[in-house]
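Attaching the record inline, Q. Sequence:
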Amino acid sequence: MTVKLLNINILISFQYIRFVTFMIFSDNINKSNILLKTKSINRWELIDELVELAVKNKEISSEDCEEIKKTLIDREKSMTTGIGNGVAIPHCASSKIKDVVCILSFNQQGIDFDSIDNQPVKIVILLIVPKNKLSQHIKTLANIAKMMSNNSVREKLLTLKTQESIIKTIKEFEQS
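Structure, as predicted:
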């Protein structure tokens, strides 16, 4: 219970940080890193599926794949990344990458992420940040949490059928 309350406090803090320069999420997401329909039935399979997509898209080397998966799974086991409202942000820092890796995925049925609100997760944003950019990691998490706290953005994203329309919606939110 304490862990979940801490996670809520972090999310609330992120939502009200206005003076920090945030990473532009749309600058770090591309069409090939948006998975419209996941095949996974649980969070462990989904993390695997998303990391495999990052390897396929050459965002992560195949040699580093298992180590990054293990880091993400260990992070998830220590505290859920299900932030509530049907959203999870599995994330880690890695010395194996040079640039931010973002993979956005959707699962209309929802996956159990042991989220803070106990609701199934339909939107998952996998985030891997270079270890030498830890401040960017926190800023990026804050930016994503802020966007995902917007009910209309979440609802709209779940109705969209193309990667282009998803990127357009994210950009519109960022510019508002």
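The beta strands are 34-35, 82-84, 87-88, 91-94, 101-111, 121-130. The first helix runs from residue 2 to 15.

More tomorrow.
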